[in-house]
Amino acid sequence: MKLRIVSAAAALLAALGGLHSPAQGQGFKPTRAVEAVVHTGPGGGSDVLARAVALMMEKEKLLPVRMQVVNKPGGNGAVAAAYLAEKKGDQNTIGFFTGVWLTGPLTSSEAKVTLRDLTPIARLVLEPAVIAVKSDAPYKSLQDFVAAAKKSPGQLKQSGGSVTSRDNIVRQLLQKHTGAQWAYISFPGGGERIAALLGGHVNMMVIEPAEAGEHIRAGNMRVLAQVSEKRLPGFPNVPTLKEAGFDIPAVPQVRGVVAPPAIPKENVAYWDDVFQKLTKTASWQKFLADNQFEDGYQNAADLAKFYDEFTGRMRGILQEAGIKLVR
Amino acid sequence: MDILTGLMHGFAVALQPANLLWCFVGVLLGTVVGVMPGLGPPATIAMLLPLTFLMNPAGAMIMLAGIYYGAKYGGSTTSILLNVPGESASVVTCLDGYAMARKGRAGAALGIAAIASFVAGTVGVVGLMLVAPPLAKVALAFSAPEYFSLMALGLAMVVLLAGRSMLKALLAMLVGLWISGIGTDPFSTTSRFTFGRLELLSGIDFVVVAIGVFALGEVLACMETRAEGQALPVPRGLRNLLPTVQDLKDCRFAFVNGSVLGFLIGVLPGAGSTIASFISYGVEKAVSRRPEEFGKGAVEGVAAPEGANNSETGGALVPLLTLGIPGSGTTAVLLAALVLWGFKPGPLFISENPGLFWGLVASMYIGNVMLLVLNLPLVPLFAQVLRTPGYVLYPLILGISIVGVYSVSGSLFDVSLVVAFGLLGYVMRKLDYPAAPLILGLVLGGGMERALRQSLMMSQGDLAILVTRPICAALLAAAVLILFVPLFNKLNAWRLQALE
Amino acid sequence: MKARNADLWSGLALVALAAYVVVQASGWDYSGPDGPGAGFFPLWYGIVMLVLAAALVASSLLHGEPKRVDWRGAGRALAVSAALAVSVLLFKLAGFVVGFAALAFFIVSVMYRRPWPLAAAVAIGLAGGFYLVFPLLLGVNLP
Predict the structure, then answer these.
(1) Can you give the pTM of this predicted structure?
(2) Per-residue confidence at C135, pLDDT binned at 50, 70, 90?
(3) In terms of Cα–Cα distance, which of B346, B379, B127 is closest to B235?
């Protein structure tokens, strides 16, 4: 009698154990809506990217479930990163990161979660930029601007994002390379930066090509140089930084996907596969072309290496720019 | 395309049955969203984005815009009835609106809010239609120094909100300034006053403070007495259920004030409906013949800010549609929507997409009419909400507030903050510290500091930049003048006393 | 408690806050390489706050308005405030519906001294209502 009970119990336990073990063998498939965490509010850069990706996933039938965007703004990515870190082992959550997730922990002591603490999945795009001035400005090339800046140090002004953003990094690199100096004014919103340039309150800005496109078409803005390795299809007549004679790295704004820590290998492989497939679809190519992004696809393994290299480079640049590092 | 042709084309688009339906859905949804504290148009529009891909862009835009200005109508309802600001811009309406409700004139307040919103909303659309491109160019002349002086003007309004003790009002405002500074400094990445907490890195949300101080503070104050029966007097008689002719006459200037100021301030990217409603309220009080009534239930005190926050929607669409620059949180989402649908908002948008633009403008006229028709008859119905016995109403208010706050950020930390601010609101009430200056300081503090630092960066540390630029100097002069208003009033009072 | 004391205490509290702000602000950069630093603004408004708060303290000591602050009801209000705090804890542990029902029950039965079946009915009714309307109908998450 006892033996029967024990064996029944053992069988039950074994069955439960079988049910309980994580999806193994055949591979993972999400069973409920995938949460895509972004660090901006609705309408912000990451939010728009995540929504676009969600749409493409549906159109190309790459996911068996819906992708839902969850906004966790705050602390320049720190809140979103911390949220992901808390979701250890959760297989249905991913996050869309940008460069600030990488530089944030270097400068902010409350931003404790680095990309190394999360699971890298893929690097998706590299956003190039262009250097633009108002169309009635006297500068026809970047050399003109730099020369003018050298003549009156600190008088010319550039509008951009926060001091650790790519806009300022480009400025720091240019200043160091040429010895010129000009002021930098932070505007939290892209709209305000453009307004400052168009209103004549600043002389120059570093701006994403997609944002600049319409203003250039309307004749309000002119582009002096492009911050990218090769010439963008939308700007065939504008020299890149190197071509214009400025041998500095074309620092990209990087965007990609991460997942919470401690997820099983099949889960990582699944995401890796899905995103690789995404970058090969026609909708993705159209998306890249429309927004003038560079296809910066890297899979999970390469992303991890890129992260280390990028952070090291940033550390050097930020230190030279005189920004306090905490890590 | 000249204006008349454009408008007729627009009505042709807007009056199509499908688009009319979307307009109605939008304004209805907007009203509901506005009533709910915390949940606002940006989040709602973002949630609906995937749905919009199934619709044609004109219809989708009409619906989303309907949510935008519809929310402003709804926000006043809870502000007046329950002292719960449904939308950040409705905070100012709480001041006189709730006071009117306490006096039994809730219906009149609701009605005036609806009418003012209608008048101002329409003016806003007219403005958008007539003067959008030239006005956008003028708006570009505004940069950091001008924003700073605009906000200084807003802060100067504190002297008009002061009530009995100027010292306490100023101190409340300074506390508001302090709260606005909590978080990461955008310029230097230093964290300020965050006590090492991750949740405070992005500061304390305005909604949390406003709901805490106003709604929860009020509920706590009402808990003091075990009042039997209704919480607030139910309006009796037609006089109190709807605004009277006298009310409408009193508000003549308020309608103009709210519409014009709201629209102009809305055009400036970065200045929002909250600033617009405060400034409009302040101006109204400054020119009123009976300023003592404000804060105690002056009808104009409801009409002016409500009008301002509605015409601001029309204004905010100006930079979006003429330059592709979003002027507020909601317009930023609208911009994203346009981009996702494949449009390229920018200077050439209107000329290349006349159907969309004029269709939108025409639909806004229609939408405002729909909202008026929806809201006015419902006013007596809403007023009956006050019949609910206190022991049901107060927990209900608490529940709505908590859910509303949670829906903004999904963080329990914010909920505990709102409870803390509720206690603060209660204590402030007891000790006679006015709440409006606190909110004013909170709203303007962050922007003001940023604008000041940007200005000094532009001028290499030279403060003179604030007086050498014409618009900036003019606004600062206006701010200084406002500071003299109470002095002027006092002198006037002395003069009258001496004459007796 | 006289109004004098109330003003005095609140004034002193504000003086303390202002002092804290000033101290913190002086620890940050007053002026950075690209313009005013993090400490610039807080330092100035902290100083203004200090001056005004001190003025408030002084005026409360010198004038002492006869207006009395009515503290009778305060106990009840503070009790509700405490109940709110407890309910936040309950939200974390057991979710909104449970926590809110408890809060509503507390308010109705203790604050309003209504019979507890009524209190329970109200509590469950409201909490249920919230559950129906928000997550189910509107898709808004409850704590």
Answers:
(1) 0.81
(2) low
(3) B379
